[in-house]
Specification:
Chain lengths: 902, 108
């Protein structure tokens, strides 16, 4: 770059030598020769122009320049040209270090903010990666599929069931060469639980799988002890997971030991497998051999020969061609030999890739899936990760840019002493990149520190490892580089262009462009923060609403005890009496299901008088006793409750308001209702029970708030629809739980000594519906907190910096009589405006997004202006607090000191 | 020794430098050469020759005299060194010596 001003007015017509030719010359000519060569050329130019005219002189000039391309003229190796390389680096390091430590506060804020942003991003991405990698640890997992049935039902939406007929999977393996393995399983849903008697105590095992040896050929289940080929080959054998082995046998080696069960006698332990990984949909405590249950002929026929049922969990594995699509099309033809026309029309089967199960099973019922993920939440979390790191980077760049102005003097001096343009750029960029890398290192440290708490929070077991995450390091380094370059580019390019004279005189000011950029960045940060806060407030509100909503019954203080045997069931009046004798029990009720049921509530089809069977309406059904309403504190709207004394009540039913509405009965009392079938579709059992309505209850939520209240019938326990299955005890408030449970269990075992007692607290179980939302709420709160923290860090630094820049102005103002208040106002004004702008930007977007989320719930809070205002107000307050600290500090400073700063 | 011989063009340039006697810089040398000998050399040729002369130690240079036409760029003035003058003298003597050996220049 030439040191000289470029335009030289010609005495006659203002012309000058061709600048491109000059540029070329400057490009190749060595710097020590340039001056006199170019001088000579210019001199000749003007002389010739006068003598021969402009045209030919131009050409001549070009010619002369080109002819100067001679070896001795050309620039030599830059290394020789000036002092570069390691010599200068020592100085750069020293200056960079001094720069950091001179304003430790700023540096910490800046680097800390960036490190925090990167660390949060990494943690969230780890979570996302873990979710996406669900079930990918099985060998060749992309070739493993689950069989799912698509069933068409009359009058209902299509159903998808993750179950198949018993003989289907092995038949596929036999008849289709592309299917190389198949495995079937049963669990408690198909075949029920069983009790394990170990030492003196017993308990119900419900997390088991009954399966075949091919299980080990398909799924990742490393066998610690035992032979995977033979472990499940014989009847009455079981393979325990390490967790189960420890639970049952403690320190003793479980191999070869026996597990005593109530249904199948003794099971011999033939293997120990590792406990299944966290991110697998298939979780189990033990694997029992199929032979154990097929010893029973009926079950064997059901599993091996029944083509009309559908209760077996089935998986297959394909060969390398992995052509699931083609195979799927062959199912229908294959099944024609086993299914009649009607079944063929209604039932079809397809293959679901095992890696899709975690996210892609929202529409599937009856599945064994330990954790259904929701893709939308994953997007949300990824977006949050992006936000957080974005804000951190923006902060860093903003502050670094602002502070760079301080170094204008340094730049000027360096130029005077002889630094080349490139050197300056290199210095600033290098420094900036180095600091970004430092932030990266700190971030990695933070991640290592926070990984365990995060695991607990997110209910996962993630680890950092080289194989899994080594590639990330490169991307992270790349990001650090980019952040370093972008934030360093302002000082590097902008400052380095200054004329040393102007810089040293202090005439340099921030250009308009930089100011707008900074403003834009602050607005973006705060818009994101406000958005996060709004989202969090909405989620928390909804959660609170759900947990406290009047469900139409009182879910607190209720202990639910399962009825697991005839003994427990048949003497229920006596049992109820015994329970109510316990001093802390206020009410007892027996019912077939309970509100908030976690098993399925029975569906029945009903018809009014004069309705044809095909016009039947489906309703839910719970069988209750006369104490049901009192125990649950459900209110009646009309009519009366059941009464023990009236024999005719066995055909009486209570319906809820929704049912009455659906039937079109303004007065439902004494209306007859025929219950046609128990169950619907293929599994319907015809009952034809003629009932009549004796009362109407107010609507109550018998399912999660995700779903609307539908029509439900409360029938008398004594009718043939459904047997009682639970005792529900209302326990008075303040009773110590352990004592209560001991006494309840004492009563239980008096009547049912064989089976262990199973109990639940209703409010706790109801909460389980909303586990996903609770987790979201927690994560959102943390994310919101983070974004605001980082944004405020940035604002803090920026405010401090701006205040410092205006110290002289403030000093003058104070001298002229301005009050502290007016100065604080002056300094805060701009930032307040920025936050308001952010509010305007964020609010509509957040409103739209959160309304969509709330639609997930049939019952939800509304997104009120209040919420939005709350979020905005909160942010404004925090921002103000941040800024005002600096503003007040500046405002109370001594004008003498500030004005003396010269 | 290599480099101590003076080329024909270089000799010319050096002579003009001596003629200009302290006022010799690129353009001036080029113009004077053209004026006195009719030899039109490009400015780059002149500079190249000066560079070679300087490398051989026959001229020395200093910087000074910026003008407006040069955009404030200074000129580089050249002056013959003792070695340079010596080289010129040697060359002239060598030529005279050869001329004297020719019996008759007028007949081919």
């Amino acid at each position: 770059m030439s040191v000289y001003p470029h335009s030289t007015p010609d005495p006659t017509d203002g012309s000058h030598p061709p600048s491109w030719a000059d540029a070329l010359l400057e490009g190749f000519c060595a710097s020590d020769l340039l001056e006199d060569i170019q001088g000579d050329l210019h001199e000749l130019f003007y002389k010739r122009a006068q003598q021969y005219g402009l045209g030919i002189t131009w050409l001549w000039y070009w010619l002369d320049v080109v002819r100067f391309v001679r070896p001795y003229v050309l620039k030599r190796n830059p290394d020789f040209e000036e002092a570069r390389g390691p010599i200068m680096w020592k100085n750069y390091f020293k200056i960079a270090h001094r720069n950091l430590t001179k304003h430790v506060g700023y540096s910490i804020i800046n680097i800390g903010g960036l490190a925090l942003g990167i660390a949060s991003c990494i943690l969230i991405l780890l979570y996302v990666q873990d979710e996406l990698a669900f079930d990918s640890h099985h060998p060749e997992s992309e070739r493993i599929y689950r069989i799912v049935e698509h069933r068409v039902e009359e009058g209902q939406a299509d159903r998808h069931l993750a179950l198949a007929m018993g003989p289907f999977a092995p038949a596929l393996e036999t008849n289709f060469p592309e299917v190389i393995e198949s495995v079937r399983m049963l669990d408690r849903n198909s075949i029920g639980r069983f009790a394990i008697q170990q030492n003196a105590s017993g308990y119900y095992e419900g997390n088991h799988l009954i399966t075949e040896p091919s299980f080990f050929r398909i799924f990742d289940a490393p066998m610690q002890q035992g032979n995977p080929e033979t472990a499940l080959a014989e009847p009455n054998t079981v393979v325990l997971t390490e967790a189960a082995a420890e639970r049952l046998f403690g320190r003793t080696n479980a191999m070869g030991q026996t597990v005593e069960t109530d249904r199948w006698g003794s099971l011999q332990v033939t293997g120990i497998v590792s406990t299944p990984q966290f991110n697998s949909h298939l979780q189990y405590s033990m694997l029992i051999s199929m032979g154990t249950i097929t010893a029973n002929e009926q079950i064997e026929r059901f599993v091996e020969e029944n083509w009309n049922g559908g209760s077996i969990i089935s998986y297959i594995k394909l060969d390398e061609r992995n052509d699931a699509a083609t195979l799927g099309t062959k199912f229908s033809d294959f099944l024609a030999q086993y299914h009649n026309e009607e079944a063929q029309a209604r039932r079809s089967f397809y293959l679901q890739p095992v890696q899709d199960i975690h996210f892609g099973s929202q529409h599937i019922e009856q599945e064994r899936n330990a954790s259904k993920g929701d893709r939308t939440y994953l997007f949300i979390f990824s977006a949050i990760a992006l936000f957080v790191v974005l804000i951190g980077c923006i902060n860093y760049m903003n502050l670094a840019t602002a502070r760079a102005m301080r170094r204008a003097k340094e730049v000027g001096l360096r130029k005077v002493v002889g630094a080349r343009h490139q050197q300056l750029i290199g210095q600033f960029l290098g420094e900036s990149i180095l600091v970004a890398l430092l932030a990266l290192v700190i971030a990695l440290g933070l991640v290592a520190l926070l990984l365990q708490p995060f695991n607990t929070l997110a209910d996962k077991a993630m680890t950092l490892s080289w194989e899994a995450h080594g590639a990330w390091l490169f991307s992270l380094l790349g990001i650090a580089f980019i952040v370093g370059i972008v934030s360093g580019s302002y000082p590097a390019f902008f400052l380095a262009r200054f004329r040393p004279v102007r810089v040293l005189k202090g005439e340099v000011k921030a250009s308009g462009g930089a100011l707008w950029l900074r403003r834009g960045l602050v607005v973006t940060q705060f818009a994101l923060s406000i958005g996060m806060i709004i989202a969090t407030v909405v989620v928390l509100n909804q959660l609170d609403y759900i947990q406290n909503k009047r469900l139409g019954f009182n879910q607190e203080q209720l202990v639910v005890v399962d009825i697991n045997s005839g003994a427990s069931r048949n003497q229920f009046r006596t049992i109820k009496d015994e329970y109510s004798r316990l001093p802390f029990v206020e009410h007892v009720s027996a019912s077939s299901r309970i509100p908030g049921e976690w098993k399925n509530i029975l569906t029945v089809t009903t018809a009014r008088e004069g309705q044809e069977p095909d016009q039947a309406t489906a309703m839910q059904y719970i069988g209750v006793d006369p104490d049901f309403l009192d125990t649950f504190e459900i209110e009646m709207a009309d009519g009366r409750n059941f009464s023990e004394d009236l024999a005719m009540d066995s055909t009486g039913i209570l319906i809820n308001e929704t049912a009455a509405r659906m039937m079109g009965w303004p007065n439902a009392i004494d209306q007859p209702l025929n219950i046609l079938t128990v169950g619907t579709g293929g599994q319907a059992r015809s009952v034809n029970f003629n009932a009549n309505v004796i009362g109407v209850v107010k609507d109550f939520h018998y399912r999660s708030l995700h779903e609307e209240i539908g029509p439900i019938i409360l029938g008398y326990w004594n009718n043939p629809i459904q047997r009682i299955d639970y005792y529900t005890l209302r326990v008075s408030a303040g009773t110590p739980i352990p004592t209560a449970l001991t006494e309840i269990e004492a009563v239980y075992s008096r009547f049912d000594p064989d089976t262990p007692m199973e109990y639940n607290f209703l409010d706790a179980r109801l909460n389980d519906f909303y586990i996903a939302e609770q987790r979201v709420a927690t994560l959102f709160s943390i994310a919101a907190g983070l974004t605001i923290l980082i944004a405020c860090l940035g604002l803090f630094g920026l405010a401090a910096f701006t205040a410092e820049q205006r110290t002289k102005e403030i000093g003058v103002r104070k001298v002229l009589g301005a009050s502290v208040g007016s100065i604080v106002l002056l300094l805060s004004k701009e930032f307040v405006r920025l936050v308001l702008a952010a509010f305007l930007v964020a609010t509509p977007v957040a409103y739209l997004l959160m309304s969509r989320w709330l639609d997930n719930f049939a019952y939800s809070t509304s997104l009120s202006i209040g919420t939005l205002a709350l979020a905005g107000g909160l942010t404004l307050l925090v921002a103000l607090a941040t800024v005002s600290y600096q503003a007040i500090r500046a405002a109370v400073s001594d004008p003498v000191k500030t004005l003396r700063y010269e | 020794m290599k480099g101590t011989h003076i080329g024909e063009f270089e000799e010319l340039v050096l002579l003009v430098v001596c003629v200009l006697h302290g006022q010799a810089y690129g353009v001036a040398i080029q113009e004077e050469m053209k004026r006195q000998t009719g030899r039109g050399a490009s400015i780059s040729a002149v500079h190249a020759a000066l560079n070679r002369l300087q490398k051989k130690g026959f001229v020395e240079s200093w910087v000074g005299g910026a003008t407006k036409e040069r955009g404030g760029r200074r000129k580089r003035f050249f002056q013959a060194t003792a070695a340079g003058r010596d080289a010129l003298r040697t060359a002239r003597q060598m030529r005279d010596h050869l001329w004297n050996l020719i019996p008759d220049m007028n007949t081919p």
